Amino acid sequence: MTLLIFLGIVVLFVGVVSDILTTSKLPNDDTGKKFESNTNFMKICERWGFKAWIGMEIFIIIVLEVIDLIFLKLPSFFSIAYGAFRVVAATRNFKIINDYQKVGIAAFRKDNERRRQYFAYFLICIVAFVVIPVIAYMFKVNLFLTLSIEGLILGMGVAFFRIYHLTH
Fold it and tell me: Which of 7, 37, 60, 160 keeps 20 to 30 A from 84, CA to CA?
């Protein structure tokens, strides 16, 4: 149990520190702020400074550890999840920084607009995938036809997601 608590604190610490470091390295111009995944970070830093953000992170860490220790049977569940989430955010920031340096701001903006379009198509496919069975049930459409259409929509959604992911 002590090992799980220690692991939770380590993952949480690594995630938060890596996200804060990569966020502070984003370009300070309007473009860098536009692509920052955490808009609350920008609002708090502009209003109260970077130290206020770090203080808020410390508060979140303490609250998550208290919740993990008091309310859950499995220690460090929320700590590990939050730390992993922050590592993913840091990875995204690091990729944005590398893309800026590699292709330049103009090309990055153009690529970002194209990627958003593919992601929007993916979301439309997901919504259709959820809605079509309900409509088919309401109108008593043949099950084979419904599953065929569902398969096509799922395939298109996966293709759009892969294109989005590969260009990202």
Answer: 160
